[in-house]
Amino acid sequence: MYATTDTLATAPAAQGGRSRWLALYTLCAGMLMIVLDVTVVNVALPAIQDDLGFTSSSLAWVVNAYLIAFGGLLLLAGRLGDLLGRRNVFVAGLVVFTAASVLCGLAGSQEVLVIARFVQGVGGALTSAVILGMIVTLFPEPREQAKAIGMYAFVASAGGSIGLLAGGVLTQAISWHWIFFVNLPIGVLTVVLAVKLIEKDKGLGIGKGTDVPGAVLITAALMVGVFTIVKPAAELGWTAPRTLVLTAVTLVLLAGFIVREATAANPLVPLRIFRSRTLTGANLIQALSASGMFGIFFLGSLYLQRVLGYDALEIGLAFLPTTVVMGLLSVKYSEKLVMRFGPRRPLIVGLSLIVVGLALFTQAPVGGSYVVHVLPVLLLLGLGGGICFPALMGLSMSDVKPEDAGLASGLIGTMGEVGAALGLAVLATLSATRTASVADTKPALDALTDGYHLSFAIAALIVAAAVAIAVTVMRPAKQPADTVSEDEELVCEAA
Questions:
Q1: Taking the CB of residue 191, how many other CB atoms lie within 10 A of it?
Q2: Largest distance between two CA atoms of the chain
Q3: Which tens digits make up the pLDDT trace of 266-295?
Q4: Distance CA 158, CA 141 (A)
Q5: What DSSP line would sit under 304-328, residue for residue?
């Protein structure tokens, strides 16, 4: 069930109706800027490589430097929001991200760009980690909260496909520098609006949760883990000695973190938070669904580029139907679905539609038609995402205490980020391995397509596992009283 006034009301919830929605738009603008950055940069990578002289292997650091900082700091950033005030952390993150964006745009060397991208990741983590926690405190009433989370979920999940289009336009029309410069006016405006529209919350105070050893352990574990996924695992394989060593280091750091949190007087991440089946299940589903969806957007883009011959702008336009459908459902209908059926049923239905779409993608051939072989897949992904992601975001925060809202927000973001990185690495590796294994017996495009088909099938299985968790682990959510029949109430009481 969604958060209630008793469990999550804090000072920001006292804001007037209109100002709360303006505050929500401000939070979504900040999130959109962060989400756009990932795919905008991916589209511009060839231009960056030509201009700054990156090798194929070193070019990956333009993306990896951001992902390591972002994924490594999300959980810590969320807890800092609880301790220092979520608005303070949100604004600080925007300032860091915007300043680093300008530095990226001005970069004239590989080293400057990679360092600036790392700093961008720090700012992105600070900004995005606290947003969901701020939304549930701004909108404690279930119906409004469902609508607000629907808008947030649309921005968080569909913003990447908007970035493909924006990156193609900016890179081809002006230069790659402007994919970063465009963040300056957006960032400055968002900071001004955040200070004006979002009430300042005090936070618990740094003394209530200071856990420096825990912070060092979890940040190091996440950074090493993300680095292992995006670098040695993706390039050398999962059984390479370097990958195994770094995986072992990650596990040791995580074990040390768990021991620390179980014994610390003021733990950074109170382990009691994981007693909630709803929160734990939602985070597992987030990791699995992100693994399947993010990897498919990346590999689907490669299919359009390498097999069907699309350029960057055409790829961005090709993914627009997903954005449109997801946006329409998330913003206009997700709240109605959640209020009518509860969040669990839309979650299961939406994830199932994604599974069908991914399975359908395994039939896309060499020389396939966009209308016949690609568009139906993208429509199903948009339909499924628009139905399930708002429900998932609501469930992830439904059992959270006010003092843990920032932590829970950072946790769901961390699971999505790590899941996306892991999914991309696994699917890309499997795809490349399959292509290499049939390269001697099939034409080049057929071999490529075989590899993509395998990754699409594995992605479908991954999201199917998320469906299984939604069915077996997530507790059925009660429907609002005005939508539950007498027979249904009796059944609930009997249960």
A1: 19
A2: 69
A3: 777 777 778 778 888 888 998 898 888 877
A4: 25
A5: IIIIS---HHHHHHHTHHHHHHHHH
Total-model pTM: 0.73
- Phi/psi zone of residue 367: left (φ > 0), alpha (ψ -120 to 50 degrees), beta? left
Rounded to whole angstroms, the Cα distance separating 249 from 228 reads: 10
Tokens of 397: 């925060």
What CA dihedral angle connects 37, 39, 42 and 43, to 10 degrees?
Answer: -110
Cα distances (angstroms) measured from residue 439 to each of 3, 326, 339, 407, 478: 53, 37, 52, 47, 53
Q: Which two tokens stand for residue 263?
A: 């014994």
Handedness of CA 229, 235, 239, 240 (dihedral sign): negative
In degrees, rounded to 5, the angle at the alpha carbon of residue 348 between the alpha carbons of residues 344 and 350 is 115
Q: Which two tokens mark 308?
A: 């069907």
CB neighbours of residue 21 within 10 Å = 18
* Residue 5 burial class via C-beta count within 10 angstroms: exposed 0-12, middle 13-18, buried 19 and up: exposed
Rounded to whole angstroms, how far apart are CA atoms 235 and 424?
Answer: 12
Model confidence pLDDT, tens digit, residues 6-33? 333 344 444 556 688 888 888 988 888 8
pLDDT for 27-80, tens place per residue? 988 888 887 777 677 777 777 888 888 775 567 678 778 877 887 787 788 778
For residues 227 and 243, what is the distance between their CA atoms, to the nearest angstrom? 10
User: How many Cβ atoms from other residues are within 10 Å of residue 277's Cβ?
Assistant: 12
Q: Is 198 left (phi over 0), alpha (psi -120 to 50) or beta?
A: beta
Instruction: Return the residue matching tokens 């992605």.
Output: 459
Could you count the other beta carbons within 10 Å of the beta carbon of residue 249? 15
Pick from 265, 261, 337, 292: nearest CA to 458: 292
H runs (alpha helix) in 439-473: 444-472
The helix/strand count (H/E) of the chain reads as 21, 0
Please report, to the nearest 10 degrees, the dihedral formed by the alpha carbons of residues 127, 131, 134, 136 taken in order. Answer: -170
What is residue 484's DSSP assignment?
-
If pLDDT is split at 50, 70 and 90, which confidence band does 456 have? very high
363-379 burial, b for 16+ CB within 10 Å, e for fewer? ebebebeeeebbebbbb
Report CA 482 to chain centroid distance, whole Å: 33
**3-state SS class at 470:** helix
Six-digit token string for 483 = 């939508």
